[in-house]
Amino acid sequence: DTEVTQTPKHLVMGMTNKKSLKCEQHMGHRAMYWYKQKAKKPPELMFVYSYEKLSINESVPSRFSPECPNSSLLNLHLHALQPEDSALYLCASRTVIAGGPLAFSGANVLTFGAGSRLTVL
Amino acid sequence: AQSVTQLDSHVSVSEGTPVLLRCNYSSSYSPSLFWYVQHPNKGLQLLLKYTSAATLVKGINGFEAEFKKSETSFHLTKPSAHMSDAAEYFCVVSGGGADGLTFGKGTHLIIQP
User: What is the pLDDT of residues A97-114, one digit of tens each?
Assistant: First the structure.
């Protein structure tokens, strides 16, 4: 079982709807991520939060709005999406080590949630 | 600059036979390397990781990988495939991406009964 919990597992929305994806972890990780994954492709980074502050925004359209209300929760607010935004949205988290938010070692691997499958009609 | 190449987009093996998924990397320093597995409509699960300790790394579900610096490779192997191994496998190297990671394009593993 994953230690990163994402809800809902499936979401269908129209282009005028407003909805949110939620992610929760209780591992004490201080870096949290949103990725978008299209079928048969690797995940594409959208946002990174480090210590509850947005540290990376990969030029994502403003119809996607992230929020990190506390160290355990990460939300992705969705508004006026397009059909091409249909994808699997993955949340991930990890610890932050001395090398900073971009430093990886065996001690701070990414832990992924099971994803939220979004369909935009 | 970091890059990772998964040499096969699809690999098909019979149940009970060995599995080999190939990954080559390029890095300007000693990287950390990871293999993740993704079953259909699921998130990514860490199989194993290399962190400059032992070059032969054992992971979950009987998988292992060997880090070969001279060949810049980190191939994933399993002695005997099981039907439940059918999934997408991603080789990942630290560095290069905005998130500190570079993902390979993935290898789809098919297990024939």
Answer: 777 666 666 667 889 999
Interatomic CA distance for residues A31 and A110, integer angstroms = 9
Q: Cα separation of B44 and A56, whole Å?
A: 21
Q: What is the pLDDT of residues B56-74, one digit of tens each?
A: 999 999 999 999 999 999 9
Window A:47-86, CB contacts with B under 8 Å: 48, 56, 58
- Give the Cα separation of A65 and A18 in Å (integer): 11
What are B's interface residues with A at a Cβ cutoff of 8 A?
32, 34, 36, 41-46, 49-51, 53, 88, 90, 94-95, 97-101, 103-106, 108
Helix (H) or strand (E) holding A47: strand A44-50
Task: Single out the residue of B66, B63, B54 nearest to residue B25, CA to CA.
Answer: B66
Contact B20, B35 (CB under 8 A): no
What span, in angstroms and rounded, lies between the C-alpha atoms of B18 and A75?
Answer: 42
